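wait is this the right file?? whatever heres the structure
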């Protein structure tokens, strides 16, 4: 085994950019599921998250976890 400090994030974190100001946002799936709407700390815009899409994203993330890095980038379009 390589001597690398590999760190698997659990729960997985979804990183995406604010569709309005491009601020880097970071949420866990649990946080995303707990609230249908989050607010961008950069510009204060409310971001609606499609829970159906989120479910698909979660599946994709589960697959992505098996790879490195265990991160996925999602963009939201208006
Ligand atoms: Zn923003």
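ok assuming it is, sequence goes like this
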């Amino acid at each position: 085994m390589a001597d690398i400090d590999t760190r698997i994030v659990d729960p997985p974190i979804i990183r995406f950019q604010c569709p309005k100001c491009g601020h880097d946002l970071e949420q866990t799936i649990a946080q995303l599921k707990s609230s249908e709407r989050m607010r961008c700390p950069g510009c204060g815009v409310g971001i609606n998250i499609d829970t159906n899409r989120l479910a698909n994203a979660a599946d994709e993330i589960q697959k992505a976890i098996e790879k490195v890095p265990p991160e996925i980038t999602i963009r939201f379009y208006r």
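The chain has one domain: 8-67. so i think its the right one actually
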